[in-house]
Design goal:
Helices cover about 45% and strands about 15% of the residues. It has about 270 residues and is of the alpha/beta class. The chain is globular. The structure holds nicotinamide-adenine-dinucleotide. Nicotinamide-adenine-dinucleotide binds near residues 18, 67, 94 and 95.
């Protein structure tokens, strides 16, 4: 038996319409999992679910705003109803609003806190409730949260965002402790991606130039590569493969762990 395989598993990926979430959904599907794409972006999310289904697994879309508790209840119920269970939850949805500290807008900080912290916490809450032995799915499983290298190093222009990703890191540990001690059968881990040129990553490079932290966006990206021992930016598949590992039985004795996927940038 290949312990990295996910054949027969049912996965829910938040923020799965595009970027890292879409890549994670694809990698889970290639490992054999059925996948529910959950996002606020409906046409993009449906298109991604269709693309994932063409890999030969069941894949569906559900509209989910991760800050909304009723949405979470409906998304978990839809996953169990349409895929036949829930074994893997990837809390990937997140937002980044860059700012210099001297210009920080409290509304932006509150919005990031809501999506990145409250959204992740609600996901873990409803994921654990569904996957624990008394839950509607009931078979245990794996939760993987998207933290960031920004939780481990200081990176200019993203003070508030970095704080939310540090929160995701700490929440992961506490959830893993509670789940383990209470016998839920659910492992909870996180990844710390480095800089990946998705919409979010490229937007940050633009902001770095706008704030005078780099001559232009290309220089901002080159500066990141310069502090990355493996000498390149991250690729979506780099992060997705680490998530597949944490979702699978290959990581069966890992819980409360954070895996850097950053080419060494965060060490
Ligand atoms: N790109 C990077 O360099 C990088 C690095 C480290 C960590 N991350 C983290 O990885 C995750 C994915 O980032 P990305 O680069 O793919 O970003 P992205 O902006 O390309 O995609 C984010 C996705 O999340 C969705 N989303 C946003 N708010 C939502 C909400 N309230 N409810 C449901 N879905 C919502 C968006 O619609 C989008 O599909 C984020 O948590 C991000 O913080 C990204």
């Amino acid at each position: 038996m290949n312990r990295f395989e996910l054949v027969g598993r049912k996965a829910l990926v938040t923020g799965g319409a595009r970027g890292l979430g879409a890549g994670i959904a694809e990698a889970l599907a290639r490992a054999g999992a059925a996948v529910m794409i959950a996002d606020v972006l409906e046409p993009e999310g449906k298109a991604t679910a269709d693309a994932v289904a063409r890999l030969g697994v069941i894949s569906r879309f559900v509209r989910l705003d991760v800050t909304d508790e009723a949405d979470w209840e409906a998304a978990i119920a839809a996953t169990i109803g349409e895929l036949g269970g829930l074994d893997v939850l990837v809390n990937n949805a997140g937002i980044l609003i860059a700012s210099l500290v001297v210009d920080v807008d409290p509304a932006d900080v509150r919005r990031m806190n809501d999506v990145n912290i409250v959204g992740t916490l609600l996901g873990i809450k409803h994921g654990l409730r569904a996957m624990r032995p008394s839950g509607a799915a009931g078979g245990g499983g794996s939760i993987v949260n998207l933290s960031s290298a920004a939780a481990t190093i200081a990176f200019p222009a993203i003070a508030a965002y970095s704080a939310t990703k540090s929160a995701v890191d700490r929440i992961t540990r506490v959830a893993a402790q509670e789940s383990g001690k209470l016998g839920y059968g659910v492992r909870v881990n996180c990844v710390y991606p480095g800089f990946v040129p998705t919409g979010m990553g490229l937007g940050l490079a633009d902001d770095m130039a706008r704030f005078g932290l780099a001559a232009d966006p290309e220089t901002a990206l080159a500066d990141v590569i310069g502090v990355t021992p493996l000498g390149r930016l991250g690729e979506i598949a780099d992060v997705a493969d680490a998530v597949v590992f944490l979702a699978s039985d290959a990581s069966r004795f890992c819980t409360g762990a954070g895996v850097p996927v950053d080419g060494g940038m965060g060490m």
